[in-house]
Design brief:
Layout lengths: L1 H34 L4 H11 L6 H8 L3 H13 L3 E5 L7 E5 L1 H25 L2 H19 L1
Antiparallel strand pairs: 1-2
Length: about 150
């Protein structure tokens, strides 16, 4: 019983540490996204669109799990800001496909990865080579034991 309690407390401690690490790593990314002044629903729509080559409003509404009219309003506002475009569907001209603009796609492709990795790279610069090796080894070990 005591051993089980000790493992539970250790698991809770690891969980707290991992959450704190994730939070620290996300700060620059969250700040970059905040500079875009997107609402939560707008951010969700943009995340879906960035992963696609363009979606119809119906497809986008389904993936976002939001009402068609809600998504339509979000897309209208994003389009006014130059973040998304509506293009006629190649197969059915009555439909339009919504896609992020080239500027957004370029930001996500070229700049976002650097912003996301910067806090970790910066922290590792302050670690000794031995600390870096222990960090990597510990994370690999945790991943292996989690995989079973």
């Amino acid at each position: 019983m005591n051993k089980r309690r000790g493992l539970t407390e250790m698991a809770q401690d690891i969980d707290r540490e991992l959450r704190a690490i994730r939070s620290a790593l996300r700060k620059p990314l969250d700040a970059a996204i905040a500079r875009g002044e997107l609402t939560g629903p707008q951010r969700g729509i943009m995340e879906i669109l960035v992963r696609s080559d363009g979606l119809s409003l119906k497809e986008l509404s389904r993936q976002a799990e939001l009402a068609h009219s809600t998504v339509s309003g979000i897309v209208d506002r994003l389009e006014k800001r130059g973040m998304v475009t509506r293009q006629a569907d190649a197969e059915d001209g009555r439909l339009s496909r919504i896609a992020v603009t080239g500027e957004v796609r370029e930001f996500v492709r070229d700049k976002l990865p650097g912003i996301a990795i910067a806090p970790l790279a910066g922290a590792l610069r302050h670690a000794t080579p031995g600390q870096r090796a222990r960090i990597v080894d510990g994370l690999r070990t945790l991943r292996r034991v989690l995989a079973g």
